């Protein structure tokens, strides 16, 4: 495809992906496909910019804009799809002076982390131990976000530090 068509097609794709960000977390195949499209936009824009010495400054600026926009959107695409999966777990913290343990369940999961409810206060970067009640498998996780949902209750997002078969469904 010629440079003009590539630029027009990329802007069209990037605009559509930006408008439909709310759908990114629903379908794992779609998530992977979006990631591939964004990666291709960044790669091809960079290649065209470097390989073609006769392009105008305007086209070079458009290619840079495409690469930056696609890279920014790419940072918002999940590494792996989420699935709504309630797994009974025990979560504990061994933070000095704030040791605690509670049983809860996941609200949704991915290969790299989970979202769950927690009664204990946590902070970003806290390390937690997560144990599946059904299998006894353990994993360490890091808190990546938290938000209060009710008095004494919060939702937290955790990232598994060591991905293993603990997340097998």
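^ Assign residues to that structure.
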């Amino acid at each position: 495809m010629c440079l003009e068509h590539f630029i027009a097609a990329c802007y069209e794709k990037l605009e559509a992906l930006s408008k439909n960000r709310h759908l990114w977390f629903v379908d794992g195949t779609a998530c992977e496909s979006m990631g591939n499209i964004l990666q291709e936009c960044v790669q091809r824009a960079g290649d065209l910019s470097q390989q073609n010495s006769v392009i105008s400054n305007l086209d070079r600026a458009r290619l840079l804009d495409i690469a930056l926009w696609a890279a920014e959107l790419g940072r918002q695409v999940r590494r792996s799809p989420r699935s709504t999966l309630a797994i009974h777990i025990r979560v504990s913290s061994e933070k000095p002076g704030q040791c605690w343990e509670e049983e809860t369940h996941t609200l949704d999961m991915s290969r790299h982390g989970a979202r769950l409810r927690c009664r204990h206060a946590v902070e970003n970067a806290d390390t937690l131990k997560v144990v599946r009640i059904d299998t006894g498998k353990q994993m360490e996780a890091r808190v990546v976000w938290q938000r209060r949902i009710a008095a004494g209750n919060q939702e937290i997002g955790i990232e598994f530090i060591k991905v293993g078969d603990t997340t097998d469904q």
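Residues 88-167 form a domain with the Thrombin, subunit H fold (CATH 2.40.10.220).
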